[in-house]
TrEMBL record:
Domain Purine catabolism PurC-like: 8-116
PANTHER family in the cross-refs: CARBOHYDRATE DIACID REGULATOR (PTHR33744), DNA-BINDING TRANSCRIPTIONAL ACTIVATOR ADER (PTHR33744:SF1)
InterPro entries: CdaR-like_regulators (IPR051448), PucR_C-HTH_dom (IPR025736), PucR_C-HTH_sf (IPR042070), PucR_dom (IPR012914)
Protein name: PucR family transcriptional regulator
Domain PucR C-terminal helix-turn-helix: 430-485
Gene3D superfamilies recorded: PucR C-terminal helix-turn-helix domain
Amino acid sequence: MPATLAQLLARPELDLRLLTPAGVGALDTPVPWAHSSELADPTPFLSPGQVLLITGTPEEVDPYVERLVSHGIAGLGFGTEVVRAGTPEPLVEACTRHGLPLFEVPYRTPFIAIARFFADRVAADQYARNTWALRASRAISLAALRPDPLAAVLSELARQIDRPVALIGADGALDRIAPSGALRAEAREALRAAADPLLRSRRRAAGSATTDAGPFALQTLGAAGRLRGVLAVGSDGLDQAAQQVVTGVVALAGLALEQSRAADAARSRLRTSVWRALLAGETELAAAVAEPALGPLPEPPVRVTALTGTALAAATDWLETNGGGFFARDGHELVLLESASADAAPAAELAARFGLRGGVSGPAPLTGLRAALGQAEVARGRASADDPVPAFDDVAAAGMLALLQTPDARAVATTALAPLTEADPTLPGTLRMWLDCDGVYDVAAKRLGMHRHTLRARVAEAERLLGRDLSGFAARADLYAALRAAG
């Protein structure tokens, strides 16, 4: 910590003498530096908290002292026998009146000796903090060798910096707090809320949070696209040395989390193998392999959810903590296997959190997973921003014609109907009404408000334009499908 004005005045070799009363000013305030200047207004060149040294008497003493106090100058030293002998009494009175400590510097004490006193203290303080940082970093590195390295590192960091430390996992839940019980529920919730947007961004980033336990600095852990969590460190009053120690812990914590990735990768490969065994119909083998390592398979009947997107890796990490059923990554798909009676909310939450699209199959036995996967993929084709994970049951209930509402079907239908729309834009609507009326001219003509012979002529014109005979069911069904797809 920098030296104080009281410590400066106590140095016998400097032979300084306090001229203002002892209660004037704050003599115990740390002073970072001493600077000399004879300018009428030196404040633009001074920082608050410094000591100013002068040898001449200001022309206007009271305004001069008032400017120094307003700028936050900690003390004023007057060098005697350079310009004049003794310190001017008006200066002593002004400093006493405005609360600025004033001390006298004898001729034999150079100003550089005062500046050096403060500089030596700053250097000693910096050396002490650097030494502390090295020792703290060494203690934290040794903690990383313990059986639970991550918990040991965070606990040691909290002890070294005397600030609370928390780890928010990739799932957004508060994973660890050091020291234990350091944060109340409100502070924990504030940290989770601040970490959530950092995790959702899936990029390396930093942030901050204000809690009832003080301010916290937040830093993501892990690689972009696959964040492993967020480290939250109490940041109130941390100096540069402490921040360097925290930076080292960010690297160590990231390394500790990355070390678990090999085990996660092996676990992921096991899941994929179990899933492929299920697809091959080897349910007994899959259940025997899954139960000791991954837990029991869901009770049939089951539903299959098939998800795709750019953040499958991050979604898989999230499921490791939050997943209730069986899941596996197979190529560019993430599949979830859950009992048919289970809530479908986890799939919707997963899709919303990581920007995925998917579909849910109907109920199926474990021996029918290949067909169920096909249903899930069909449902995924109907996914939209409003419904990112539709159910196959809803798709099937909408009927076959609902499957025509796709960009591919719409493009084909628009091309097929182009001769009609180019000749008469109202002709597709006329044909749609005719087909809706089961091809009965009298009924359709009445609804269209035209004579039945006129309608027959328009249908004949459509046959000519399309080059097709619309008297048969197949041709009518194909035309109706095109009209529905074109919208």
